[in-house]
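Support reply, case 0932

Customer input (verbatim):
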Amino acid sequence: MRARVILIITVVCLLELVLVLGGGYRLMNARTVQVAGRLVDRVDTTEKVVALTFDDGPTGAADAEAILETLADRGVRATFYLTGSGIEQFPDAAAELVDAGHELGNHTWSHPRMILLPPSRIAHEVSATDRLIRQAGYDGEISFRPPYGKKLLTLPLYLAATQRTTVTWDVEADSEDSTGHSAEELAAATVAGTRPGSIILLHPWYGRTATRQAIGMIIDDLHRQGYRFVTVSDLIHG
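Our regenerated output:
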């Protein structure tokens, strides 16, 4: 039995390698499609409603409080895709997000690129993070966002088998390529790319001051345009 499991894992990993070498690079990075299971990058609607999402973290109470204050001042609920290692290090920060009424999503335990990993590692990355999200007090649906948006074969198959929704995004202005941009530039680029049903991605942790400052600007500008903000689950389920 053990030999059979090892053989299956080896075959799956080889298939992923073949996909990568044979044009799977585009599939691996695609934000709108995956080989199995449900993936949502935005919702098709004419209603001016969007979801504001934050990746990574938590990285401590001070960072969490700065983000929460901006959201609370504007009455906005957001979705936080957290890592299990971050929650383990800063459990109180994760609990504060839940207490403030925000949605928590799963962003793996250690933030690896989720390709060419054995099923056992994938299961651990997801399930261990789920456990800490529940310990933080969150009892809603837990959607999943792959680090860097990367997924190929094994991860989507696991997510499909566990009936998990993969959530990507259609608006991201503060990627690694945007390092050094001002809060005003990040906000302007985000607002310009937003449309009804958008899922907006920001990375406000790890001392990214410009991104944190941009959050309020983005919300204020989109509010002036008539948009309202909901969690990812509320956006998906209408």
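We compared this against your earlier run and they match. Two observations from our side: The chain has one domain: 2-31+41-237. The first strand starts at residue 39 and ends at 40. Please reopen the case if you see a mismatch on your end.
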